[in-house]
């Protein structure tokens, strides 16, 4: 058996530099509430949402070969749960955010058990149907504005922080 001269490296100089840059960027963006203004924070939140949805799409369509057109149902479910918890149940809005996200994740488990049995175009149609079911349920909730939604009452927004600058 001859030696081929190949050497496996788990990391090299450029990968360590890349990890350091990504780590520094992560720390910088995590500290954004202390250095960014309101407009920049809103823009960062929108960017994070798009990155999360793009990552989801890449995992489903790119790696698994599943084209989903219904992932917006869970974003909407989390939003409606956030407003229901804050407006109807009286939960503080900042506490309602992780609760709503966790509840949407819990709802997604049995739905995923059903929908991941489908393949190809049946999967795409099935996810579309699930999203429509969620939309129809949301449109029947008049306390939250039905299908058109609602805004948080001013008293709840003020309760998040005392001053406009802190909000």
Structural description of this entry:
The protein is mostly helical. The chain is 68% helix and 0% strand. It contains seven helices and no strands. The protein has helices at 13-30, 32-35, 38-63, 72-88, 93-115, 121-139, 154-160. Helix 4 (72-88) runs antiparallel to helix 5 and helix 4 (72-88) runs parallel beside helix 6. It starts with 12 loop residues before the first helix and ends in a 7-residue tail after the last helix. The model has no long low-confidence stretch (mean pLDDT 85).
What's the main sheet like?
Answer: none
Number of helices: 7
**Uncertain ranges:** none
* Strand percent estimate: under 5%
Overall structural class, as computed from helix and strand content, comes to mainly alpha
Number of strands: 0
Give the overall shape.
flat
**Distance, first to last CA:** 69 Å
Order of helices and strands: HHHHHHH
On the 0-100 scale, what is the average pLDDT?
85
Helix content: 55-70%
User: Roughly how many Å is the radius of gyration?
Assistant: 22 Å
